[in-house]
Design a protein that fits this description.
Layout lengths: L12 H14 L4 H13 L3 H22 L10 H14 L3 H6 L1 H23 L10 H15 L3 H20 L5 H18 L2 H12 L4 H18 L1 H16 L7 H19 L13 H19 L8 H45 L4 E4 L22 H10 L3 E4 L29
Parallel strand pairs: 1-2
Helix pairs in contact: 1-2, 1-10, 2-6, 3-4, 3-6, 3-14, 4-14, 6-7, 6-8, 6-14, 7-9, 8-9, 8-13, 12-14, 13-14
Keywords: Membrane, Transmembrane, Transmembrane helix
Pfam families: DUF6056
Protein name: Glycosyltransferase RgtA/B/C/D-like domain-containing protein
Length: 436
């Protein structure tokens, strides 16, 4: 890991702050996310793995609290909702391996969503209370928390701003707007402006456009990613439709209006976080993950309305079959993922020996063997490629201070997006051979 704009390796926490200061002006405004990323890379394993696991646990609990409208507590947690959350995250989230297991991507999408989820929790609780009192500490705390939440990630922060604006506007109309709600919203918008107005964003956009940028062609690609993202959420969307039909047909929303509208509010935030990416100059598929993270508590919150009245979405026999199928799927893909990452770890050990031998031989053009496993929905590998101009090749070229580094061959690209590739492929051969 290098200090931004230099070939110097990060050697202290102060180097991380210097690096992110430069990053803000040179490449982008996600200072909060990248502070986490560089710090976790700096402390290394197993500490960053423990942090990621705790963050994922915080995500599950945050979704649970939002769904039920509860203050954070570990008392009286219900097993089935926790299973529901875990299963839908594993099955529906796009690019799960990249978003959860990769340090940098997890800081950009997992950590940032967790921050925003807990920032939004008081607003979620305000749905079911006449008015939450505003103490001085809560006003100041929500303002600071808002700045941090708004400074995390463009699409998530934009969605959070829209969501908090709706609540503040409604509470203002109802004459029950609390000062902490307003200060939190102002802080959130301020953090979002700090994020969006970073000089590095313009520098990055200029770099993207320097090679030619066709906005019309990009729009069609963005729409394709948008609709594929919905297709990958089929189970979640179907669950939402079935629950809504049941609630609306029996007018159950009249009995639990706060729970009903709070759940739709969360789903709306998730939808906005995905929809705004259509206008972005870059729409990576991993940016669809927050849609899943915000929509799950919304769908579960709607299901709570049914279960509180002993209503069911599906007959008991069908529910049991679906739960058994989900458990089998999670076990099979989870086992495959564990085996795949173990193989990737062993391949990387061999890769390091290859690089070490070539560096000791004073070679400045490195050639490495391919890993014997490919990326899929649950396994993310940011590997070098045969082309020395690929982004990971350029990063490692700087890190090892050599003229180039390439992989001896490339795998044939699958015709299917990664989220539809579920099981590890080990021992695959590749083509485009070059001499070492």
């Amino acid at each position: 890991m290098l200090v931004e704009g230099t070939n110097d390796i990060v050697g202290s926490v102060s180097d991380i702050f210097i690096s992110q200061y430069r990053h803000y002006f040179d490449w982008g405004g996600r200072t909060v996310a990248h502070l986490f990323a560089q710090f976790l890379l700096y402390i290394g394993k197993p500490y960053n793995a423990v942090f990621t696991a705790l963050c994922y646990l915080a995500l599950i609990l945050g979704i649970y609290y939002h769904a039920y409208g509860l203050k954070p507590t570990l008392k009286n947690l219900r097993l089935f909702p926790l299973f529901f959350i875990t299963a839908f995250l594993w099955i529906c989230m796009r690019n799960f391996g990249e978003v959860v297991f990769n340090i940098v991507s997890s800081c950009n999408y997992l950590v940032t969503v967790v921050i925003i989820l807990y920032f939004l929790l008081p607003y979620r609780l305000s749905f079911c209370k006449e008015k939450i009192d505003s103490g001085v500490l809560s006003v100041i705390g929500m303002f600071i928390f808002g700045i941090i939440a708004g400074w995390t990630n463009e699409n998530n922060s934009a969605a959070a701003c829209a969501g908090t604006f709706l609540i503040c506007a409604y509470h203002y109309h109802e004459k029950k707007l609390a000062l902490w709600e307003l200060s939190g919203f102002i802080g959130l918008c301020l953090g979002f402006l700090i994020l969006m107005l970073a000089p590095g964003n313009e520098a990055r956009l200029d770099f993207m456009e320097s090679g030619g940028f066709d906005y019309e062609a990009h729009l069609w690609v963005s729409l394709e990613i948008f609709f594929i993202s919905f297709a990958s959420q089929a189970l979640l969307v179907i669950a939402f439709i079935l629950i809504m039909i049941k609630i609306r047909s029996q007018c159950l929303y009249l009995a639990s209006p706060y729970q009903y509208y709070a759940s739709l509010w969360l789903i709306l935030i998730g939808f906005i976080s995905l929809a705004v990416m259509i206008a972005s100059p870059n729409f990576p598929t991993r940016s669809a993950a927050p849609f899943t993270m915000f929509s799950i508590p919304g769908v579960l919150g709607l299901a709570v309305i049914l279960y509180d009245r002993a209503e069911t979405i599906l007959p008991g026999a069908i529910r049991k079959v679906l739960m058994a199928a989900a458990c089998l799927f999670i076990f099979a893909t989870g086992t495959s993922t564990a085996v795949g990452y173990t193989q990737a770890y062993n391949d990387n050990l061999y890769r390091q020996e290859e690089i070490k031998a070539q560096l000791e031989a004073k070679k400045d053009k490195l050639v490495v063997s391919p890993l014997s496993i490919q990326s899929n929905k649950y396994i993310y590998l940011a590997d070098v490629q045969h082309s020395e101009k690929y982004w990971t090749n350029l990063i490692l070229k700087r890190y090892y201070n050599v003229k180039s580094i390439v992989r001896s061959c490339d795998f044939e690209k699958s015709s299917l997006p990664n989220e539809f590739l579920l099981f590890a492929k080990i021992g695959q051969t590749c083509s485009t051979e070059v001499k070492k």
